[in-house]
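## Example pair
The file below holds two records. Each record gives the amino-acid sequence first, followed by its structure token line.
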Amino acid sequence: MKLKEIYNSQKPAVSFEVFPPKAKTDTEKEQRIRALLDELKQLSGYKPAFISVTYGAGGGTRETTFDIVLRIKNELNIQPMPHFTCVGSGREEILQYIKKFENYGISNILALRGDPPKGRENFTKPEDGFGYANELVEFINSNTDLGICVAGYPECHPDCCSLDTDIQNLKRKVDSGSEAIITQLFYDNQCYFDFVEKSKSRGINVPIIPGILPITSFNQLDKIVALSGCALPANFKADLAQNKDNPERIKVIGLDFAVNQCRELLEYGVPGIHFYTLNKAFAVKSVLDRLEINKNEYSGV
């Protein structure tokens, strides 16, 4: 099912993101992929519209991403959505790779510029490749029938000088053929609401799907904030800090916040919610159960 159809329903679609697990040996990789699929089985009852699979910096997880995508489709009978970046690939190589997905019956792809490979500070445009996500979107749109999703940043992309400029860049991606936008994670819903309204005012009329990551560990915080550039509401941040030595209390605080955040988003009328799972089912399952999102309600398909 293409993105246009997924987000044309009256019920909000649920989707999940996972990443290829790291492993030193083929045996270990298989064990970790099997464990990941077991986690996803716990979430399959919520009828996700798709499960997206990330693509490592520099294409380092390319083959593992491809393997997981096919196994989600064939073993779980859920539509996967692979990520693909501009990093480290020329046009012919990109075309061969994305055509493989299309030939295996994959319907959608998430097109990103991508982060610089580890050890490099700045993104470098590959020879005969692309330097911006809108160029990749246009290339995929011109050469395949894949539905294309892109990323949006309610609190501005870290490499961009302002949110207004970032939304101009987002408009280029949409004009190049993107059918939907999934946002970077955020914890202040007003940032998302403002982002949606500003995007609409610039002529961006495709669905903008909020990306949600429930916090279940105080040790997650620094990494989450550093990688995403998101801000935590003052009361939430203070509550977490006051209970940093109480892991169980942190879980309660984090899950309560995620449930309330999602409730407000659903009341606002979001077309879907995309959960960053960190390859674990527990937190997302807890949130969905409390929201009473299940196969009898928000089917996502």
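Second record, same layout:
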Amino acid sequence: MNHSHPLDHLLSLLKELQALPQETPWAEFKHNAIKPEDLGEYISALANAAALQGKPYAYLVWGIEDKTHQAIGTNFKPTQAMHKQQELESWLLQKLEPKIDFCFHEFNSPDQIAVVILEIQAANHTPVRFDGTEFIRIGSYKKPLGKHPEKERALWRVFDRKPYEYQFAIESIPEDKVLELLDYPSYFELMKQPLPEGRRGILDSLELDRLIEKNSLGLWNITNLGAILFARDLTPFRQLSRKAVRLILYDGNNRYQTIREIEGRKGYAVGFEGLIDYLSALLPSNEEIGKAFRRQTTMYPDLAIRELVANAIIHQDFNISGTGPMIEIFSDRMEITNPGIPLVDVDRFLDSPPRSRNEGLASLMRRANICEERGSGIDKVVAQTEIYQLPAPIFETYQDHTRAVLFAHRDFKDMDSEERIRAAYLHSILRYLNRQPMNNTSLRERFGIETKNSAMVSRIIKLAIEAGRIKPYDENAGTKSMRYVPWWA
């Protein structure tokens, strides 16, 4: 399974692993190649240990000395390794049950010493077996899980924990209270289903989508998923009321003076269209932008706003309490923030397959046509800013939060070199995803620069290469036919 990480990511991962005190249950260090059977048992033991420790991944590292964690190099080359006339990786995969994600990374440490990191996904709903046996780490030893029933019980307790979406926001209420708290007509409208005749049909549909659950007393529990998406008002749901979307309009380009602050009260799905309409009404409009629009148009593309707000809702970390998605409008930009660090590197938002913390939430938002069917929609956001000829958006993380920034129109001459380089990098990704590497002409059109000024664009390309953001597609092409791709391509 190959998910190649950029080298700087692997080097920082190596540094973190070397800094661990001694072997932990979810990390193991080896010098050289070990027997394939041993390796399979380690994968099972580490995947199960990572689940017990609440870690998303476990690691097996070759080329690092066990006691000192110094890099000593290794002769293990997983990509070339064979076992029983098969590639090692596919042999291991056949013997593992259930099939988990694991990936070998071969690279050199900063002082050019060969190391290999095997990244192993934690077990997530049942213990991982190798060749029919489940293993676990006891101290730094791997042992059959069946011989340690207390660890086995603890592991199943971890698997039994419900995802946040399916935990209960309110418990043991009668059915009329459920229908009072949830905006069920909106649910059927968004799902494009006719409203069932009687109460029974309504409750059955809501239960099918795990918005509500009947308990042993014959009463109803509303799940976090049901409340956060379809509450008529979030206030009665104590822990969720702080998760409502906040909208703040400032006077000027800083946070000193607030003109207006609104806290959403409705569930995300029920309130989404109203929120976007309200937001559009607050935004000033641009008289004329780029060559694409010769009429009054909004300051930011509607599609970009929708995607970024939906993304902030879907990808937030609900375990960070007391804070939810926030939209801030300044005179020169708009910032959309959500609690939680993203599961993919911000530098790779455009091209990475989306990984969502809240799959149930994401799936219902997609079915309600609130956000993109697949993909993060970030590529559409960037494409829209190009059509509108706006400065390139910024995606960044700070203090356990993720933030996207859209900028108001600014003429090319008013952009600083950092903004120009960022625009070139994002443009190169969009072109790369469409299998058309960027060239001088495409970037010139991106900035709305006339042909006679193409030397200005050549300077931006040079700066972006020096900054390590893009690279030539083919070093040996002539100057006129030079094309460029993102640094990681």
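Notes on the second record: The longest strand covers residues 114-121. The chain has a mean pLDDT of 89.
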